Amino acid sequence: MKNYFEQRPDGFRESLERGMAAVRTFRGGPLQGRGARDENIKRLREEVQDAEGILIGAGAGLSASAGLIYGGERFQRYFFDFAKTYGIRDMYSGGFYPFPREEIRWAWWARHIYYNRYIDAPKPVYGELHALVRDRDYFVITTNVDHQFQRAGFDKKRLFYTQGDYGLFQSVNPRIRRTYDNEEWVMRAMEAQGFVMDEAGVFQVPPQGNILMEIPEELIPKCPDGGGAMTMNLRADGSFVEDEGWHRASAAYSDFLKNHEGHHMLYLELGVGANTPGIIKYPFWQMTYQNPKAVYACINYGEAVAPREIAEQSICIDGDIAAVLACLG
User: Fold this and answer.
1) How confident is the model at residue 5 (pLDDT cuts 50, 70, 90)?
2) pLDDT higher than 60, residue 46
3) Is pLDDT of 273 > 80?
4) Region(s) of the chain under CATH 3.40.50.1220
5) Span 67-71, average pLDDT
6) Could you tell me if 290 and 37 are in contact, meaning their C-beta atoms sit under 8 angstroms apart?
7) Is residue 1's pLDDT more than 50?
8) Dihedral (CA of 88, 172, 63, 104) sign
9) What pTM did the predictor assign?
10) Residue 38 confidence (pLDDT) above 70
11) What is the 3-state secondary structure of the chain?
């Protein structure tokens, strides 16, 4: 299997190489955005219509704009008991908490997965983005793991989730290089904690609030192949499983880039922060720099910047992605 994967194009590693090239290219001067907001929105609207290809790069800011917030009221609504008992303040930090028993840890993960993977985002941002590009020649590369692109109707053959998927488990045994769908398990684990379906088919805390912070021992996930422990299919270290689907998406990404070399491209970056800039942000800068026909567009709250070397090819809009998409539609 390894040799078969090695024969395929690997867009992920090709992208990382472009990111490293960008680090060497953009060394001088400040980062900056140019132009008035209304002007930039008008330019971006025109680019969406005129570009021969649109490569969307999405980070956590896109899901945050869609209402998939990991803290605040949303966290308190579904994790109030974990917050009170363990002092956990948000979903992100809870994923690293050293829970005393596996029954408790997997109860946490069942909720975390369900409310970020198996329900639609509170706001229709992904659907509005899909409406904007569905008739265009597009591809999506994202570090998000919440599956919201596919839930919103994006063609799964045009999606590359580089960092994993909340909807997949993998074995802790490094010799088992497969992933496993977890939807059925998640639903059973939510029911076991006492969550109830509302009329819309979404699990909610019952009115009296009596839910459990653990699942039965027999519900703790076990690998179907080896019988051992399971973990999330999320890229945290070298144990991350890049399965058949991952490699297929990476090859599709590589093919999209090769098929659009030298074309009038729009590299549309949405909500990408500084955690993993080498996967999306830096490669987008480098590909724009190397193609005079390309345009780099960045929509981000407080982080809409571009290197001065590609300033004339860039559209930087500082603001909420949902508000900007509403102006583009």
Assistant:
1) low
2) yes
3) yes
4) 6-65+123-162+242-328
5) 97
6) no
7) no
8) negative
9) 0.95
10) yes
11) CHHHHHCCCCHHHHHHHHHHHHHHHCCCCCEECCCCHHHHHHHHHHHHHHCCEEEEEECHHHHHHCCCCCCHHHHHHHHHHHHHHHCCCCHHHHCCCCCCCHHHHHHHHHHHHHHHHCCCCCCCHHHHHHHHHCCCCEEEEECCCCCHHHHCCCCHHHEEECCEEEEEEEECCCCCCCEEECHHHHHHHHHHHCCEECCCCCEECCCCCCCCCCCCHHHCCECCCCCCEEEEEECCCCCCCCCHHHHHHHHHHHHHHHHCCCCCEEEEEECCCCCCCCCCHHHHHHHHHHCCCCEEEEEECCCCCEEHHHHHHEEEEECCHHHHHHHHC
Query: Could you tell me what percent of the chain has a pLDDT over 90?
Result: 90
For 147-182, write each residue's pLDDT tens digit.
999 999 999 999 999 999 999 999 999 999 999 999
Looking at residue 17, what is its pLDDT?
A: 96
% of the chain residues with pLDDT over 70:
96
Can you tell me which residue has the tokens 């999320």? Answer: 234
CA distances (Å), 25 to each of 28, 105, 131, 280, 320, in order?
9, 44, 35, 16, 29
**CATH number corresponding to 6-65+123-162+242-328:** 3.40.50.1220
